[in-house]
Amino acid sequence: RTFEMRKINYAPLFRLLKKRKIKQKDFFFLSKISGSTRQKLRTNKCITTNTLVRICNVLGCELSDIVELRK
């Protein structure tokens, strides 16, 4: 059985910030996200589950609101 590899995509996070009129700079400061993690988010690299939960807590949203899996 072969598995199709899907990749993580954080476009929903950036769409949500735009929809709520939250500046990325302000959001990253409020959520205490480091520069390296910001870069990972912008380039769709893996980040820790703790960071994902923190983002959801700051925005009051669900994981599915900020992350999607793409083929």
Largest sheet, if any?
A: 2 strands, antiparallel
What is the first-to-last residue Cα distance?
17 Å
Q: Which segments are poorly predicted (pLDDT under 50) over 5 or more consecutive residues?
A: none
Helix content: 40-55%
Tell the overall outline: globular
Query: Using DSSP, what is the number of strands?
Result: 2
What is the tally of helical segments?
A: 4
**Beta-strand content:** 5-15%
Q: Whole-number average pLDDT? A: 94
Main-sheet strand order equals 1-2
Round the Cα radius of gyration to an integer and report it: 13 Å
Succession of helices and strands: EHHHHE
Derived from helix and strand composition plus strand pairing, the structural class reads mainly alpha
Structure characterization notes:
The protein has four helices and two strands, in the order βααααβ. The protein is globular. By secondary structure, the chain is mainly α. The chain has helices spanning 11-19, 24-30, 35-42, 49-59; strands spanning 7-9, 68-70. Strands 1-2 form a two-stranded antiparallel sheet. The model has no long low-confidence stretch (mean pLDDT 94). The protein is 49% helix and 8% strand.
